[in-house]
Amino acid sequence: MNDDWKFHLREHKGAYAAAAMFVVIFALYILNHQAGWTAPVITTAANKGVLLAIVAMAQTLPVLTAGIDLSVGMVFVLANCVASHLVVGTPLQAAFGVVAVLAVGALCGWINGAIIVYGRLQPIITTLATGTVYYGIALGLRPVPGGDVHAGLADALTGSPGGVPAMLLVLLGVVLLVWVPYRRSVSGRAALAIGSSEAAAYMSGVNIGRTKLIAYTLAGLLAAIGGLLLTFVTYSGEASSTIGGVYTLNSIAAVVIGGTSLAGGAGTAIGSVFGALVLRTIGDLLFVFDLEPLWQPLFQGFILLAAVSLGSLQLLKVSNRLDLFK
After folding, report:
1. Cα–Cα distance for residue pair 245/141, rounded to 1 Å
2. How many CB atoms lie within 10 A of CB 295?
3. 8 belongs to a structural domain
4. What residue ranges of the chain have pLDDT lower than 50?
5. Which residue segment(s) compose the domain that 135 sits in?
6. How many structural domains compose the chain?
7. What does the pLDDT look like over 277-298, one tens digit per residue?
8. What is the CATH number of the domain that holds 282?
9. pLDDT single digits (tens) 220-248
């Protein structure tokens, strides 16, 4: 049991480091905030952090297979625009709209996976191209910001019943219903095997195509969940390429901060969640310290560069990726 615990710590040390970093930075944020630990402050921080956390989870799945998804931000934006059209009306109509938004996201992810698997194209090229297509569809749906969303659902998901932000409960639900079953499934274990060595996984009988299709489909689904939640936060839809680009880049940064290797085969979505919360809290902390807005991206860039560099150092020290788990 002791050896199992040591292996667990080595395997998830990146996630634990990201969690510790978040606790320290968030404590500094609360201590220096004028309002301190109050429900509005915590709820606002949760509403912003959970959006990126779910998109970071979406990015984690392709990265584990040694791939990448540059379209997650645009699927996020597309889902936001679709939700602003469909998640309206009666509770039954709104529920149908939620299902439709999630189906659109899963379809976008499946298209990415199908092109990569059957078209044999590189993930970075494929998702860059499909992301542009998804943004074009979003722009067609929402040439200008607008729309609406079911007020009852929005109020329920952006409030803090009992002092606990509802968004955190949603994030917990997504982790328990999507990530945990996936990680424990055959496909989840196969994704790690493919990321470690696709050739070895193939020789071991792993269904490479199906595993990648599932990973990219779930990535699209998770990105759509994030876009749906954005609609509940903003009460509208907006086809913004800036938002899509920022969420895509920050999702990759959150994955790295959370200890997931961009080379694939090692990492966890839990680490990516804490990586996303670290990124969001750093931005809030710089605002609380009243740092000049022009300097904020510079400091965030240095932090991201340091995180990426530390993650790369581990790979440079090993000749065999299996050494990461020793």
Report:
1. 19
2. 10
3. no
4. 318-320, 322, 324-326
5. 13-315
6. 1
7. 988 888 778 777 776 666 767 7
8. 1.10.3470
9. 999 999 999 999 998 888 888 889 988 99
Q: Read off the pTM.
A: 0.88
Of 232, 317, 259, 321, the C-alpha closest to 22 is 259
Q: Assess if residue 322 is contained within a domain.
A: no
Dist CA 134 CA 78 (whole Å): 6
- Whether 290 is covered by a domain: the verdict is yes
The alpha carbon of 221 is separated from its chain's Cα centroid by a whole number of angstroms, namely 11
Is there a domain that residue 158 lies in? yes
